[in-house]
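lol forgot to send this yesterday, sorry. struct tokens for the thing we talked abt
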């Protein structure tokens, strides 16, 4: 499943591929729904609109135009790609939407498993939009995601630290892979109740989370399963996982075997010797 770094990689890839303010000629919907119905007014709303910015909020991508924004979520297997001919767009190939630009190119949304989302966000609706409201702080925002914030919000919480930092209402985009990796580097046991995290541990967790997400973005995200960058290349972060999917293999620090267990419904990996 694409996590924040993959979505950010997709965002910056799209931004550079699209270039400056490409004008939408037409939005073609190849099916009425993906995970949810696609708003029927999408084609009419975005006709002749220039894309002024490609933004990310949590794991959502926003294509901003003067009229409104096209909101998308990649779900499990979604991707955007840019093609130069309509012959490269195929409904039978799980392409669900094609944005035709005035310059002859097409931006195509493909999603074989259809857990993704395509929606419309009007200006001023971002904090109340059903998909965006209630989202926590951005982990890469160093004014909001701080040790003080994490310490304050975790007080009296009995939930496991791993479940806590994956709670999208607290902080967005720290998905399953990055949660295991961050807790390992911060030397915090994933099962430790969030309310017992010290201020120092919160500080370490904030710092390493940011470092890991930035590293993953630099490397183009973890390329697992169907995820591909906007240009079609695979990412490379999976080669540098220290604990994720390394159950039974030796800890790179102390050589003890990495433990694995399902916590909060998700596979979790840690070193019982290094993480307290
Ligand atoms: Zn270890």
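and heres what i got for the seq, position by position
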């Amino acid at each position: 499943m694409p996590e924040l770094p993959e979505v950010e990689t997709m965002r910056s890839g799209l931004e550079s591929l699209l270039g400056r303010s490409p004008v939408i000629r037409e939005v073609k919907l190849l099916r009425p729904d993906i995970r949810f119905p696609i708003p029927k007014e999408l084609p009419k709303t975005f006709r002749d609109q220039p894309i002024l910015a490609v933004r990310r909020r949590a794991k959502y991508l926003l294509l901003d135009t003067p009229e409104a924004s096209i909101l998308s979520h990649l779900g499990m297997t979604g991707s955007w790609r840019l093609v130069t001919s309509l012959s490269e767009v195929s409904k039978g190939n799980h392409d669900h939407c094609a944005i035709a630009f005035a310059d002859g190119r097409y931006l195509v949304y493909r999603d074989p498993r259809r857990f993704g989302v395509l929606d419309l966000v009007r200006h001023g609706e971002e904090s109340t939009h059903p998909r965006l409201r209630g989202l926590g702080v951005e982990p890469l925002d160093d004014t909001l995601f701080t040790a003080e914030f994490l310490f304050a919000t975790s007080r009296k919480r009995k939930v496991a630290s791993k479940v806590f930092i994956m709670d999208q209402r607290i902080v967005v985009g720290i998905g399953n892979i990055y949660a295991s990796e961050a807790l390992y580097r911060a030397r915090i046991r994933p099962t430790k109740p969030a309310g017992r995290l010290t201020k120092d541990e919160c500080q370490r967790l904030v710092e390493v989370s940011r470092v890991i997400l930035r590293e993953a973005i630099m490397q183009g995200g973890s390329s697992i399963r169907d995820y591909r960058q906007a240009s079609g290349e695979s990412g490379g972060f999976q080669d540098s996982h220290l604990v994720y999917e390394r159950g039974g293999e030796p800890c790179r620090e102390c050589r003890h075997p990495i433990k694995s267990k399902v916590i909060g419904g998700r596979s979790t990996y840690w070193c019982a010797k290094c993480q307290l």
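The pocket of zinc ion is lined by residues 251, 253-254, 256, 271, 273-274 (CB under 6 Å). anyway ping me if u want another try
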